[in-house]
Amino acid sequence: MLAVSGNKRQRAARDRMAAAAREYAGLGWPCFPGAHPPVGGDRACSCDRIGCPDPAAHPVSAAWAHQAGVDADVIERWWSERPRANIILPTGRVFDVFDVPAAAGTIALDRIEREDLPVGPVASFGGDRHLFFVATRGAPADEAEWWSCHLDCSPEDVAETPGMRWHCRDSYVVAPPSVLPNGREAAWLRPPSRDPLPDPLRLLGVLSDACEGV
């Protein structure tokens, strides 16, 4: 009986990734499978790279930007093939994400509550960072209209911006309930809903002030 219960718990842990991916797709949020911590052994990431620079926090394929989507059948196949895969959400399509140190995120959430400011979904990334989901700036047809921002981050250069990061076009975030090395997880502090996402510029000042205070 104990063995059966243990198997059920392991199966439920695997199934929750597929279930979460389906929920994101239902919101219209494209997703893609990500690397994950392997079971057993001394490696931190399931990928083949020795000394992976971003263990369990990157897509399983370099084609993620082209392949990520909301097709239910495709998502079902992906997580049937990789049931432990973490969940990658591309940014700059449906939403952008402000990525700040956890201490700054806590300060910002306190101020947001006190001042009754608009806020959308907020996630904790392993307890180290807070992810604030906001309306995307999109990708204007006229590139001259694109507002260049030094906070824009591609996944490869986030280590160079330890304060606030703005994930927009050509970037991504790792979504709950993804599992990270050393037993950490991504988890929702404010789960997503179908409410409109807040204007990024409304939150930019609040988060900038919070980052300066830590």
TrEMBL record:
InterPro entries: DNA_primase/pol_bifunc_N. Residues 21-203 form the DNA primase/polymerase bifunctional N-terminal domain. Pfam families: Prim-Pol (PF09250). This is Bifunctional DNA primase/polymerase. It comes from Actinomadura darangshiensis.
